[in-house]
């Protein structure tokens, strides 16, 4: 896997990141193709890039973006002031899956969380993605909590 590069995303990566996210939708979920020219995406990217507790990451091979995730560092008060790393929007290009690239991406992100002082890494995964759940379990993640969301 020495041919992989992990880096903070640039605004030029927005279309590739959206494409990976669209391709990662669970089976049966309607896909409304994301339009990278929508100014809302540039605004969201700038907000992430300006926040020192957030990193939007791309994984490249031979100059092609083939994976992405977002790392959020969350300072905590409980558990002795435990800092958490939150991994979100983890996606690998569909035709690149099954090659160990997702493991490489998550392992790299865990290393970044450790370097940031995190004592725990957590993530969420759509209930309709059983393959992703098995993948996270193989990486050592445990389904210890039930997640809830409220769209506003």
Would you write up a description of this structure?
It contains five helices and five strands; from the N terminus they run E-H-H-E-E-H-E-H-E-H. The protein is an alpha+beta fold. It has a five-stranded mixed β-sheet with strand order 1-2-3-4-5, sandwiched between helices. The longest helix has 15 residues, at 101-115. It is globular, with a radius of gyration of 15 Å. The N and C termini lie far apart (41 Å). The model has no long low-confidence stretch (mean pLDDT 93). This is GNAT family N-acetyltransferase. Pfam families: Acetyltransf_1. InterPro entries: Acyl_CoA_acyltransferase, Bact_Acetyltransf, GNAT_dom. Keywords: Acyltransferase, Transferase.
Name its key features.
152 residues, alpha+beta, Aminopeptidase, 5 helices, 33% helix, Acyl_CoA_acyltransferase, acyltransferase activity, transferring groups other than amino-acyl groups, Bact_Acetyltransf, acyltransferase, transferase
Topology overview:
Blueprint: E1 4-8, H1 14-23, H2 39-50, E2 54-61, E3 64-74, H3 78-81, E4 84-92, H4 101-115, E5 120-123, H5 130-138
Parallel strand pairs: 4-5
Antiparallel strand pairs: 1-2, 2-3, 3-4
Q: Could you name the CATH homologous superfamily?
A: Gcn5-related N-acetyltransferase (GNAT)
Rg over CA atoms: 15 Å
Mind summarizing the main beta sheet?
Answer: 5 strands, mixed
What is the helix content?
A: 25-40%
Work out the strand percent.
Answer: 15-25%
**Oligomeric description of these chains:** single chain
Q: Helix-strand pattern, N to C?
A: EHHEEHEHEH
Poorly predicted ranges: none
Reported by name, the CATH topology is Aminopeptidase
Distance between the termini: 41 Å
Task: Give the total of domains.
Answer: 1
Q: What's the average pLDDT?
A: 93
